[in-house]
Amino acid sequence: MSARLEIENLRVAYGASQAVAVDRLVVEPGTLAAVVGANGAGKSTLVNAIANWSRAAPRVEGAVRMDGEDIAGRAAHEIVKRGLQLVPEGRGVFMGLTVEENLREGAPSDAGPGRRSYSIDDVYELFPRLRERRSTAGGSLSGGERQMLAVGRALRMAPKSLLLDEPSIGLAPRFVALLLRTIRSLVDDGLTVLLVEQNVRAAMEVTDVVHLLERGRLIASGPVDEMRDDPRIVEAYLGGGHG
Ligand SMILES: Nc1ncnc2c1ncn2[C@@H]1O[C@H](COP(=O)(O)OP(=O)(O)OP(=O)(O)O)[C@@H](O)[C@H]1O
Ligand SMILES: [Mg+2]
After folding, report:
1. From ligand 2's centre to the CA of 132, what distance in Å?
2. Which residues of the chain have pLDDT under 50?
3. Burial bucket for residue 46 (CB in 10 Å: 0-12, 13-18, 19+)
């Protein structure tokens, strides 16, 4: 169920303005890579372009390979079918449907060989809070519950690779830790994850690799233990040792 995700020479532009220019970014199978960077750095543009999911329809050039197959520019539903699933920033839940209906909606009955299918019960095992809230409408959930549901919905599509855009935004610290730990456990079970996170400290607790994006470009990448001491990370995101 693991997939190798490889991005090469990816250029994304809104009109004349280039928002992302990433020469190379690889997420090895069954690992977690975090993309961090300031507001407007291009994090969402990057993951949305990988999944070919965007209302703004920016111009996208370059290669996105999953296990060697170039999926760049394919229809979003084709990309999902191949096992790449995006949980967009602040989205991914039907407000008018209950938790359980949300989990039932859209999931394929058979995802194909080599893919792990998550049943609704599997999702409840991962997020017991969702079982308690199974009859509650998506629109009445707390922010944390909604993010759990968004991840649960993505898992129901039997992904090989998951792109998560700021899943922890706006959540109470204990929900942040819970969500990121659960994501880590999915990676330990073989899922390949590219995680956009503004909470750099929390991301570093769970990730294998860190990529620092600045003005659309990767200015530093490396294993988490090296990046922890990188001055660009420390000064901008870890409070220069005083935080
Ligand atoms: N729909 C759009 N039309 C035009 N420009 C856009 C659009 N969406 C984003 N941009 C621009 O592209 C750049 C990258 O934005 P993006 O949303 O990808 O950043 P981000 O790193 O996800 O920021 P945040 O941390 O605030 O979510 C910014 O300069 C932004 O203004
Ligand atoms: Mg964003």
Report:
1. 30
2. 242-243
3. buried
